[in-house]
Amino acid sequence: MKQKGIDTFLGKRVWVIGASSGIGHACAKALLSAGAKVAISSRRMEQLHQLAGSASTEQVLALPVDVIHESQITQAHQIILERWGGLDLLLFVSGMYLPMRADDFDITLAEKTINTNLLGPMRAVAAVLPAMLTKHAGHIAIVGSVAGYSGLPKALAYGPSKAGIINFCETLYYDLLPRGVSVHMISPGFVATEATAQNDFEMPALMTPEQAAQEILQGIQAGEFDIHFPKRFSGFLKLLRILPYPLYFWIVRRFVKI
Ligand SMILES: NC(=O)c1ccc[n+]([C@@H]2O[C@H](COP(=O)([O-])OP(=O)(O)OC[C@H]3O[C@@H](n4cnc5c(N)ncnc54)[C@H](OP(=O)(O)O)[C@@H]3O)[C@@H](O)[C@H]2O)c1
To answer: 3-state class of 196 per DSSP?
Structure first.
């Protein structure tokens, strides 16, 4: 049994949460070019209005959302349903990254990270799922990270938030496959965005947001559950996580110099 893909984005109703910059911005732009109707959300409205540009309000809806507030998510979803009568794809991209090690562990920042990166997608899924289940149709795509595969340096709060996304998506997939709703778990490697601009080390296999968007949208179209890229980097990290711990930690200490 294989989950459904999307033959064309033309006319599809898509909600991109986290569309104001980086990967989400590039996805929204590509979707608009492909003729989708795109609702774009995040906190910075100025960026969203710029992205909407001269597109008609029939094609693009800029809806403010802070993903830590459930009410803002449900209100925006309600507007989408009223305007477009339904939603074909939820693409949740929003996320925050604060490098953190054990010697500067900050519980307030850790809570904020989990609230945004893990509870944020859960809130959005809770909002869209009932209508998708009723229709036995729809797609839920969530951007996690290869940092969720296994413990890595400087990812003391970010890593667990993304590891949670992997488990959440796996469990959703298990439940939703027989119900006609597709789930896409997206695990990017390094992408050059505002989030990674703070990194003070050389990022291996760095991609542009446009390349990342292409991988994401192609994967969704093909109905893939596990969308990870670039393969030479994500494939290597997938291999690392099946190694015995002593070997895994030895390799990370030896080769990850950050
Ligand atoms: N860049 C990478 O190398 C990389 C690798 C793996 C995974 N990722 C993941 O990819 C996603 C996008 O990151 P990016 O690299 O494109 O970074 P980015 O340019 O910093 O974009 C982050 C997006 O998340 C939104 N956001 C943050 N907090 C939010 C909140 N509370 N409510 C609503 N939206 C919020 C931001 O919008 P506002 O500030 O306008 O709210 C922005 O649109 C994240 O989930 C990140 O973890 C990135």
So the answer is: helix
CA distance 256 to 258: 6
Q: How far apart are CA 129 and CA 152, in angstroms?
A: 32
121 lines ligand 1 (CB under 6 A): no
4 lines ligand 1 (CB under 6 A): no
128 closest CA partner among 174, 177, 173, 91? 91
**This prediction's pTM:** 0.98
| Domain ranges, ordered by start, for the chain | 13-255
Residue 230 Cβ inside 6 Å of ligand 1? The answer reads no
The verdict on the CB of residue 208 being under 6 Å from ligand 1 is no
Residue 155 CB neighbour total at 10 angstroms: 23
Residue 20 CB less than 6 A away from ligand 1 = yes
Residue nearest to atom 41 of ligand 1 (CA): 43
Distance, CA 195 to ligand 1 centroid (Å)? 7
**Domain 13-255 class, CATH top level:** alpha beta
pLDDT digits (tens, 9 = 90+) for 82-139: 999 999 999 999 999 999 999 999 999 999 999 999 999 999 999 999 999 999 999 9
Per residue in 27-40, pLDDT (tens digit) is: 999 999 999 999 99
